[in-house]
Design goal:
10 strands, alpha+beta, single chain
C-alpha cells in the first residue's frame, strides 16, 4: 500500500526521494515515482517527496517515458525512513548513447542516508546563464536578418525560445 501524503506519525515506514536540480537534461520534465509497480507520484528537479508505506519489502523505480532507473529493493521496519536521490544519468550528449539498445539507464537512483535525501534551493544563477545565452542567440538571429541571411534566423530563434523557457523553469525552482 502506497500513500503519497507525507508520513504520518504511527507505525508506518517511509520512502523519501529527492531529485537533484540544476542541469539541462530533463530540466522541465517530471520523473514518475513507482513503488511496487504502482505510480506513487511525480518529482520535478529540486523536489523532495515522502511516501508512506507499510513496513516490509518494497521495490522503488523512477520512470520517464519508456525508460527510467534500475529497480531498487527497499526493506523497511516500522517507523524507519529510507532515503534516495535521483538525477539524470549523465549529460545531454550521453543521452544519445542511452537511447541505443544496451545503453545505460536514463535515470540514476541510489540510496543515501535519510537525512541526506533532501536538496537545497534551486540554482538561480544557472537560470541567468540560460537567459543570457538566449539573448546572445537572439542577437545572432537579428544580425542574420539584417545581413539578409535568413537561414541564420530560424535555428537561433528556436534555441533562444527554448533557453528562455528553461531559464523561467529554473528560476521558479522547477528545474
Amino acid at each position: 500500500m502506497v500513500n503519497a501524503e507525507p508520513l504520518a506519525t504511527g507505525g508506518d515506514a517511509c520512502i523519501r526521494v529527492s531529485r537533484e536540480g540544476g542541469g539541462r537534461r530533463d530540466a522541465v520534465r517530471a520523473y514518475t515515482v513507482v513503488i511496487d509497480g504502482n505510480k506513487a507520484g511525480t518529482l520535478r528537479p529540486g523536489e523532495t517527496r515522502e511516501f508512506a508505506v507499510e513496513p516490509g519489502h518494497h521495490r522503488l523505480r523512477m520512470k520517464i517515458d519508456w525508460t527510467g532507473s534500475e529497480e531498487r529493493d527497499v526493506l523497511l521496519q516500522s517507523g524507519q525512513v529510507r532515503g534516495f536521490i535521483c538525477r539524470p544519468n549523465g549529460g545531454t550528449w550521453q543521452a544519445l548513447t542511452q537511447l541505443l539498445p544496451g545503453g545505460s539507464r536514463w535515470i540514476d537512483l541510489h540510496a543515501v542516508d535519510a537525512s541526506q535525501a533532501t536538496v537545497g534551493e534551486p540554482r538561480r544563477s544557472s537560470a541567468a546563464v540560460y537567459a543570457i545565452g538566449g539573448c546572445g542567440l537572439l542577437l545572432v538571429a537579428i544580425a542574420g536578418a539584417f545581413s539578409g541571411q535568413w537561414a541564420l534566423v530560424a535555428v537561433p530563434v528556436l534555441a533562444a525560445v527554448y533557453m528562455f523557457f528553461v531559464a523561467v523553469a529554473m528560476w521558479r525552482g522547477r528545474a
